[in-house]
Automatic annotation (TrEMBL):
Name used for this protein in its record: RING-CH-type domain-containing protein
Organismal lineage: Eukaryota, Haptista, Haptophyta, Prymnesiophyceae, Isochrysidales
Source organism of the structure: Emiliania huxleyi (strain CCMP1516)
Disordered as annotated region, ranges: 1-31
Length: 247
């Protein structure tokens, strides 16, 4: 059984299929930017008319809308009044001299707390990104020299089997070093781990290899921050130069 309201078309609603052909383009819905601009203009004019009519009062401390009167002359929020009292060492208005009781005033609006929450979230995200960058640099410092030795050894081995080719190691970029370490077979990673184990505890080596894998994944998607790649290649090339001589 179908509901009766579904069977009766809304009087204002035209059949969707015919709308496009009947209505001229100019009568179509305005673009979202125009709607947003109109809405903003509307909000501003409402605000102006409220200010003119004194319909909206604002806190003398934070200048945001506030409906709790603190003294004879001013409106304040609870937390703003507390801050005011702390700043002037007295819960008393500097203008009219009337004392106020912060606990009897209204709290600041929730959206202000939301904004603080967003700022905190952004700050945490920035801190996480900074930590990640620092960890990547530390990783580059640890892994790059060993990576150069490993790749050089493999190239040398290939050279013995199929003629000169060591020069091809030089024009490598960060992406190709990382991807060839990760995707050329487990031998490269085993050799790298073994080499790192000479100087590092097992847990550090495991973390370094797992970061190498995740950096290889990141290269295929969002990329890795440039400072990590730059440091890695500087240290990588230093080893090559020592081992191969100047290009
Ligand atoms: Zn306030
Ligand atoms: Zn006052």
């Amino acid at each position: 059984m179908s509901s009766p309201s579904a069977a009766v078309p809304h009087p204002d609603r035209k059949p969707a299929g015919k709308l496009a052909t009947r209505e001229p383009a100019a009568a179509a819905a305005p673009p979202p930017a125009a709607v947003a601009a109109q809405a903003a203009a509307q909000r501003i004019s409402v605000r102006i008319s409220m200010a003119e009519g004194q319909a909206e009062t604002s806190c003398v401390v934070c200048l945001q809308p506030c409906s709790s009167k603190a003294c004879s002359c001013s409106y304040m929020h609870k937390d703003c009044a507390e801050q005011y009292a702390k700043t002037f060492s007295a819960a008393k208005c500097k203008v009219c001299g009337v004392g106020f009781e912060p606990s009897r005033l209204n709290k600041r609006k929730i959206d202000d707390e939301d904004r603080r929450g967003e700022e905190l979230a952004r700050k945490r995200a920035r801190e996480r990104a900074a930590t990640e960058r620092a960890t990547n640099l530390e990783w580059a410092r640890l892994v790059a020299p060993s990576a150069a030795h490993i790749l050089l050894r493999h190239y040398r081995h290939a050279e013995e089997e199929s003629g000169p080719g060591a020069a091809e190691v030089r024009p490598l970029c960060f992406d190709s070093v990382v991807l060839s370490l990760v995707h050329s077979g487990e031998q490269y990673l085993d050799d790298l781990s073994e080499r790192l184990c000479d100087t590092q505890p097992q847990s550090t080596v495991e973390a370094a290899v797992s970061r190498l894998r995740s950096i290889a994944d990141d290269l295929m998607t969002e990329g890795v921050d440039a400072s990590c790649g730059a440091l890695f290649m500087r240290l990588f090339n230093q080893v090559l130069e020592r081992r191969l001589g100047p290009p």
